[in-house]
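From the thread on structure requests for the teaching lab: each student submitted one protein with a one-line request. Submission from student K.M.:

"Model Threonine synthase from Sphingomonas echinoides, tokens only."
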Amino acid sequence: MRYTSTRGSAPTLDFRDVTLAGLAKDGGLYLPESWPRFSTEQIAALRGLSYVDTAVAVMLPFVEGTLSEADLRDLCTQAYGRFAHAAVVPLVQLDPQNWLLELFHGPTLAFKDVALQLLGLLFERFLTGSSQQVTVIGATSGDTGSAAIDALAGRAGVDVFMLHPKGRVSEVQRRQMTTVIAPNIHNIALEDASFDDAQALVKAMFNDEAFSSKFALSAVNSINWARLMAQVVYYFYAAVRLGAPERPVAFSVPTGNFGDVFAGYVAAKMGLPVAKLIVATNVNDILHRALSAGDYSQGIVVPTPSPSMDIQVSSNFERLLFDLGGRDGAALAEQMRGFEATKAMRLTNAQREGAAALFGSDRVDLDDMALAMRWAYEASAQVIDPHTAIGLAAARRAGLPVDVPVVTLATAHPAKFGDAVERATGQRPALPARIGDLLDREERYASLPGTFEAVTAYIADRASAR
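Reply posted by the TA:
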């Protein structure tokens, strides 16, 4: 399997190199040159398989030429052996049509663990025995940082620098990053910054030749293809348990950066019968505006109780636009240059029509978010976090036929957002015992101005050069 950039001018890479690279040299994102396609019989054969076995079957085409089936199975067994639930990602029924897919049973209580536990092992495997030192630079709106840090702490050959907007993540999210005291982990709190600012800094560092040539930069955000690949698995895992391939299944996905829902698009391209992918946003609704009206224009980030979705530039949306636009890298590069210059872009007719065939979208405000949390608790005794509540609110008003199961991705443990949950439901969710002492642990992080000069100077003082 070879991988190509959405902007058309970076070299094609194999799976190892695309994993270590993260962002393409032309500023684009990597995608497989073609989508593997599963037959109805192959999808049906996934029924009853463990999560590890499902993961091996779904991901094997993407690692062809780099990892053997036995290698991939070993890595998946290690990655998902750290999850607290035997099913890894269990399904929970709420009513006759609505289901939750609980993706938060990993070490840091968020869906990012599903991919990043595997990504950490891939980094270690690809770097073992080489003299290569990788500098991982990431931006987080809350959960990516803690999941990446847990996966990479103490691993040889990797320095990690994680940027987060100071004061714009929950206390639990912050402490899950800043209490990991490992020599290769560096947390940076950006002053007076949003997640979009942090993400822009990361992209600027990758695109700055003087800086990127000095360090072997890599990424753990969902711009990294390997991370996205791992998220495709749970769409197959859930769908076959609800009747696929004979019955189509819909998914409602709370999303800001478009990575989690793009994984559902990949599953559909691979042959999974997906009835609808519902893109659920909070009031930072650039994705809803893009999909419903073709208006991809950046607004001001509004802080909310769902901070992982407080985003106005969705990196992975570029992958969808590329695939729907005939995979014309030059045209997409021009389209993205225009957006980067003006902060606004209109989708082409091909992009809008292609998206409409599979995607729906909804904007969920604070009141409807709180009502969804209350409904889940009162109707089915399920306590859910604000992000999951946004997905559930969108799912319940999507108007899909009653015979189509709708799976809302439950992206975080409710205890990560205890204040918001308690306000909506009157229930204060407790942290699981395995991290029950989190609020008593020592923290360590640097507070820096959100400028390219300040951040790159900090990294240059601490990272290993090529």
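TA comment: The domain at 85-107+225-425 is CATH 3.40.50.1100 (Rossmann fold). Residues 225-241 form the longest helix (17 residues).
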